[in-house]
Design brief:
With 122 residues, this protein is mainly α. It has a single domain, classed as Arc Repressor Mutant, subunit A. The chain is 57% helix and 11% strand. A hairpin with a 2-residue loop joins strand 2 (90-95) and strand 3. Helix 4 (63-70) packs across helix 5. The longest helix has 15 residues, at 106-120. The protein starts with 17 loop residues before the first helix and ends with a helix.
Length: 122
């Protein structure tokens, strides 16, 4: 098999290390969990949704304020919030005539903060 110089480096001979293989397989989540994780990361794969999540870092905020803060229409913000809610990344509560959104839990902030740390590494 021909390997171009820019391709990933590969072993020169095929030799399976059974002990390592068993360790890797033992720690591998179920296929369904891997699929769900990939779907979750797809939700993070949109800069508008990342901006909305960032806006919710410190405060719960209503759709009107989110739309103003992000220079978007309420309709566009609502559409993205629906996706974020389905992915269990945000939650909301009603207060009088307002609907206030917040991050679902501390994990959401941690995932984004770690992502930012990763891209800022040299």
């Amino acid at each position: 098999m021909y390997h171009h110089e820019t391709d990933c480096e590969c072993c020169e001979s095929i030799q399976v290390h059974e002990d390592l293989l068993q360790k890797v397989l033992a720690g591998m989540p179920a296929e369904e969990e891997l699929y769900d994780l990939a779907e979750l990361f797809k939700v993070f794969g949109d800069s508008t949704r990342i901006r909305i999540l960032y806006a919710l870092f410190e405060e719960e905020i209503c759709v009107c304020d989110l739309a103003a803060a992000l220079s978007m229409t309420q309709s566009a913000v609502s559409h993205q919030l629906r996706i974020l809610k389905q992915a269990k990344l945000v939650r909301f509560r009603r207060e009088g005539k307002s609907v206030l959104y917040s991050l679902a839990d501390a994990h959401v902030k941690t995932m984004i903060a770690q992502g930012v740390e990763h891209i800022r590494e040299d």
